[in-house]
Amino acid sequence: MTRPGLLNEEKVFKDPVHRYVHVREELIWDLINSPEFQRLRRIKQLGTSYFTFHGGEHSRFNHSLGVYEIMRRILETFEGRIKLSRDEKLLCLCAALLHDVGHGPFSHSFEKVFRFDHEDWTKAILVGDTNINRILRRMGAQFPQKVSEVIAKTYENKLIVSLISSQIDADRMDYLLRDAYYTGVNYGNFDIERILRVMRPHEDGVFFKYSGMHAVEDYIMSRYQMYWQVYFHPVTRSAEVVLRKIFQRAKYLFHHEYEYRIEPVQLLPFFREQVALRDYLSLDEAVVLFYIQQWKTEEDPILSDLCERFLDRNLLKYVEYNPRDFKLFAELKEIFSEAGIDPDYYLEVDSTSDLPYDFYRTSQEEERIPIMLQMQSGELVELSQKSVIVEAISGKRRFDYKLYFPMDKIQALPKEISGKIRERLGVMEDV
Amino acid sequence: MTRPGLLNEEKVFKDPVHRYVHVREELIWDLINSPEFQRLRRIKQLGTSYFTFHGGEHSRFNHSLGVYEIMRRILETFEGRIKLSRDEKLLCLCAALLHDVGHGPFSHSFEKVFRFDHEDWTKAILVGDTNINRILRRMGAQFPQKVSEVIAKTYENKLIVSLISSQIDADRMDYLLRDAYYTGVNYGNFDIERILRVMRPHEDGVFFKYSGMHAVEDYIMSRYQMYWQVYFHPVTRSAEVVLRKIFQRAKYLFHHEYEYRIEPVQLLPFFREQVALRDYLSLDEAVVLFYIQQWKTEEDPILSDLCERFLDRNLLKYVEYNPRDFKLFAELKEIFSEAGIDPDYYLEVDSTSDLPYDFYRTSQEEERIPIMLQMQSGELVELSQKSVIVEAISGKRRFDYKLYFPMDKIQALPKEISGKIRERLGVMEDV
Amino acid sequence: MTRPGLLNEEKVFKDPVHRYVHVREELIWDLINSPEFQRLRRIKQLGTSYFTFHGGEHSRFNHSLGVYEIMRRILETFEGRIKLSRDEKLLCLCAALLHDVGHGPFSHSFEKVFRFDHEDWTKAILVGDTNINRILRRMGAQFPQKVSEVIAKTYENKLIVSLISSQIDADRMDYLLRDAYYTGVNYGNFDIERILRVMRPHEDGVFFKYSGMHAVEDYIMSRYQMYWQVYFHPVTRSAEVVLRKIFQRAKYLFHHEYEYRIEPVQLLPFFREQVALRDYLSLDEAVVLFYIQQWKTEEDPILSDLCERFLDRNLLKYVEYNPRDFKLFAELKEIFSEAGIDPDYYLEVDSTSDLPYDFYRTSQEEERIPIMLQMQSGELVELSQKSVIVEAISGKRRFDYKLYFPMDKIQALPKEISGKIRERLGVMEDV
Amino acid sequence: MTRPGLLNEEKVFKDPVHRYVHVREELIWDLINSPEFQRLRRIKQLGTSYFTFHGGEHSRFNHSLGVYEIMRRILETFEGRIKLSRDEKLLCLCAALLHDVGHGPFSHSFEKVFRFDHEDWTKAILVGDTNINRILRRMGAQFPQKVSEVIAKTYENKLIVSLISSQIDADRMDYLLRDAYYTGVNYGNFDIERILRVMRPHEDGVFFKYSGMHAVEDYIMSRYQMYWQVYFHPVTRSAEVVLRKIFQRAKYLFHHEYEYRIEPVQLLPFFREQVALRDYLSLDEAVVLFYIQQWKTEEDPILSDLCERFLDRNLLKYVEYNPRDFKLFAELKEIFSEAGIDPDYYLEVDSTSDLPYDFYRTSQEEERIPIMLQMQSGELVELSQKSVIVEAISGKRRFDYKLYFPMDKIQALPKEISGKIRERLGVMEDV
């Protein structure tokens, strides 16, 4: 088996964000053409965001190519600054291209209900019996494992890990620019060319020349804005809530002897929580949407109602919610139950939070590597010590709680009950 | 039943092409929220183009909102120039919004194999038993019929028809800009603001102030470029060929007693060519892609092979083809048959042609209404008489023929046969 | 005298920032065509910034049209929300168009040395014997005075004043977008359409719907970035220092019996600080640059050296400077004097500072009107109470001090002296 | 004298068109900082176009950096495809940077009246006693001469010449993109990245891969549009006519003993047509505009009137003109003379023409090198043989004639005469 070399002729993809994606390596070309990677065309990058921003219909395939391209450009700027072997460079490129290969359809909701983590599937695809594994192994028997470790942040070379997973990495840079472009929201723009120009590699990661501090600030602000304007949009989250409830109900029915009109064959392994790699790889958005459409005409009124809501974008309404107000939630739950609206499916608190930047945090969730600036003197200084704006938001986690409910069902209740609920929710006619 | 009025507050959609889509009319808002219109979210605007331009993943929902918005702006520029009643304006807006509502998944290929025209379904959705029909009827019993006539170009008011169907209309202007934006191909750009500024209504259509001639020229060039660069791209057409063959094979099997592992319930009416409106409305890309995925593991080798090709983007290769060379095609067909590659599914000529602009043509296909310029003197002159560039391309239909075949299958044949085929095709190792 | 009405046909200017500038009012059209307004074509918007950002060569004419256009759009969004008479609307448009009409060439440096304020000249042009005054008086004898008051912020209607002078007004919004566009710096971008959409008028000013808070945040961040990245760029300030020193020297020579080779006729009134309106109006960048070029060959070595530096962009170098380090400055001054480099012209501290946003400040300089958000409940809340980012930077003035000096002259000194200076400045070979 | 090498650190200019201009060579850096090159900051790229498109205020400095940057990128794509020595590459870069260095203010009009060609000055600056010459000579005594030959198209290496002067070269590509950007006219956009990607060097020039044909077509259409929309705009040409008449009158007065209030010292060599290099280099737009402003108050009524028109943008009006209608011109001339309007200064035919593309033409003016496409077979084919659009416009020269006159002066004449003139001109009240 010969190790893969360069293509006879460079291949390019026209890309609206980076103008062109350039592929010179046979290895990369073969990975892109593998079934497991092509499958990402059938999974949306932004899950349910297209219900809020109709432009946000792009796939994870689209984004993955973009991350690869940014990585390729980063490596180009590293030329002459740090010594990376050809294998290490290909490792970076493969990790960038494949970092999301384990994602499934509507991962956020799907994983929550069926209790798994797409990162485990990413690993399984890289090291398991797949085309991607076979392609990677042409670089050496250990190569798939290494790619997997880079993506899992356990690889020994911290520089390589940080290029794909840090507070300013190829993945984040691509999705901010890309999601901004497709949704039409212009908060996600920042000067990536400048950031790449001032990025410098060192043994354990990267730093940025001080002269580029404002570009980095601008990136962090873009990130902040995109999170609150797009990713955490309450309408998008309403669609996620509905989706979660669909999956929850479908699973519940399966475990309670419900007879489906059409058996959801492809989903049974997930209902049973016994999923083989092959089952997982045959899952895509078409499969999920197919069953949601079938279920619209199922007999179970909760399942069919939720599916209809999702397909026809008749989502749940919401109000701000104080997470400490346990009494309110309990009361509403009771009124809902009495009124015949099952609160397990129609009353939901969705919370979200974001930490725009942090320089040091030892927590369960995620440790943050600080962004370092290199002063003219050569000294390295942590970003928030120089940037008043970044300092202001460092370590400040912002939370958002919303309470979701079906306004149309409430309005259809007898006036008295409906009034009681509305009074508790603090909403008048329309939300 | 009260006629729909204005919304309490204007609604907006963030749109990357027109920045914002503005909705003030209750009628439009309700149409957008109807299940039949929401279904367009599950149908891609550009069919299989995403295989060539990964950015082209946007839906017909996306485009339909854009056509509506352009129409809204056109009507704004008409204020004070021509008298249109509120009903006529709403007629324009509804026709713009709904002109594609009858489209199905991958229409181009699907309609060819199952022999129907999505325009008939558009009509059926407007005048049949649908939510859209009920919403439209609030404007009067005849209103749905009128919308249908505008879209079908049979409505008596030629001005209104021309706004949605002419050589420079709201539909074409939106799709050129939109498809260019999402694919990242910048040939589709033209100055729509200027075109709208110089557009003037008259009884039977519109004309353009002479001062805006260059903007109109530029639009026609954009159209020309987008057709040849994007819409007719040979790789996109290869995916269409594969898709057509999938549908053809699936239908054939159905009519020849093949037993499907999983019965393609939603497609049976199409196989039988007996489709009810309800069947049609439950069809979307998820359904088609679901079955393509199922069929990948069907026993029939042709069906499973074609489905695998489509899903994994292992498409057919192509060479230029001289449509008068009947002998070549016959010869190849024979060699293919002998070699065990069924030419009905693996050898296909795809032809396409475009007429970028015409000022007068009485043909079966389509009559072209000329684009008129208004000179400073007030006189109306047909565009190609003033524009040397448009004159140069007027009435010149350009054709393109490609012959598609599975290179991998040919390469797997015994060297001698493979060499004979390659020699006939005029291709060496790689295409 | 008839009051000016609407133009027969709308006039438009192609504008790269707002796409088109629309003029419907005869009054505005005539003002644009007045000599005093056309003069703004000969004065750069960004003074010496083009030495740093070569794209920043646009004129105040360019910007003034933009402010007018934003004001026109603001008034459009106010339709139906507040009652403004035709006169009041024209007052807004005139104030927007003419707010900078009193600017002279390189105002920043020129005004400092010749001790005047361009705002006084704006007033003089509006109420004095000028074409602009004659045009404005067609609206009534008091109209020019009113325009002047709006620009001077003394007009009684606080709403009107705030549209042109507040922390988020037509002037600032235009220059941030425009300067970003021409320089190519993309930090200045924000979503002006959204801001205009959520802007609501009330008696004493404007507020913004809470749903648009992020767009306002983004505007404030853009402002912050543009100040530090573009407006306060140390190289631009170096050019300003050189220019100031040129004016200072030219004035000094005039007051000390120096005989100019060519008498700077147009500048004499400024040297004498006795300037008539007519003198002022005949001043533009061409006049200043003409004399700078003449002075390049003057006998006075300081004047000719400084002019050569300016023309050939051989500017002063700089280091960070601690404003409290009086000793350093005194020492350097002495060494410079001894070394024959006149410190009055070749050693200069330039300081700058910015307060990105403030909600309340009673100071000599400028009182800041807070930006108010309207919550869904109707309540008005000051921006920084809702925005963690704005809160973080509110009222925090940031300062920057730089010490400027001619590195080439220092390098030409005997090694010992040069070394002493360099050691004090903390610079090695290159800066 | 050591030959110039690489800079310690790459320098960049922020450029709105190419995002960044990169300078790695000491030689280029020094050339940019030379007084002769900095002088280009004081000369507008588009002459009087800013009267029509207010955004078109950018300088030749701005454009020259852009041409250099495109050349730098072209050379990058040539790496590995053709062998160019370091000297040859620097020759290309210098020729790109300096190709316009001999331009003076408002060259078009200025050169016509004072009868010289800026190309001769370009040569003089390169080979004469200038800083630029001294800098270039560090590459070898013959280097300045070589740069001059490349710009003059007489250099032996045809490939190098064609990169800067052909139908698709670095100069044209930059000005189309740049002028489009600053004016805001979007007709000038084309996909330069794609063009550079498909450009291939050969001994005598370049060719383009057939796959990029549409990008080349699009470039040619952009060129065509920019010429007719921007460069030949009749209002811009009106300003040129006024300017020409100013220079013509000023020169006439000088030769007829007129005593100027302020002697136009810097212009005397031009009046005498005896210009030294030093005189030429001290000329810039500031000097010309300075005198135009002085002349506004000269006693000669023609000179002062024309200068006022130019400064206050009170230009001449125009009508279409048939160049064969000698009688009309003679008649008008007579009526003008009788009415006291000197036709030598107030009646002018301005003609312009453009040949968008040609593949072969032996003419006096300019020989056109055809654009060649390389087919997949390797064969080279001339563009218009493949592109129906380019074929349609090849070799078709388009002409435009306009007759310019002062409408205000005509309107001020006795009604009878004014009516007679207007009737001949075919204009009513307003033009």
Automatic annotation (TrEMBL), chains A, B, C, D:
Residues 60-176 form the HD domain. Gene3D superfamilies: Hypothetical protein af1432. One of its GO terms (biological process) is dGTP catabolic process. It comes from the Bacteria. One of its GO terms (molecular function) is dGTPase activity. Signal peptide: none annotated. Pfam families: HD, HD_assoc_2. CDD domains: HDc. This is HD superfamily phosphohydrolase.
